[in-house]
Amino acid sequence: MHVAPVANMTLQYRGKSDTPPPAKLGVYLGGGDGRIEGEIMRGRVAWHLFEVQGQAACDASMAGRIEDDAGAQVDFETLGFFRRQADSEIWSLTAAIRFATSDRRLRALDGQTGWLRGHFNMQSYVHRYDVYLDADDKAGHPPS
Question: N or C: which end of the chain has fewer CB within 10 A?
Fold first, then answer.
């Protein structure tokens, strides 16, 4: 398997929602918005974060929706781990990601899995992640 980065996500924490999605893991911490930019799509992201918190490591799950610039939508969820070095405001994340959509424009992403790798800055409340998919799996990319 040959994996390759296919997009970058920048997410801004905005606080807790009155109607978060059901938790698959841990406690609801809030969510926000952001952007995804890359070969799989470009568009807006809305997301929610759940964690089982610890001092230096956390089990983490995100759930969200991406709406590309043409209006097509794909849901995603992640499952992974945050960790940080002692006395650092930066948490590193490695997580699996799964996509689901019924939008025919993004049908090639439906059921695709990959992973996120990046970090969260506790001072700015900004998340920055690279999204990776299997570069050998042509189904992982939407049709042109």
Answer: C
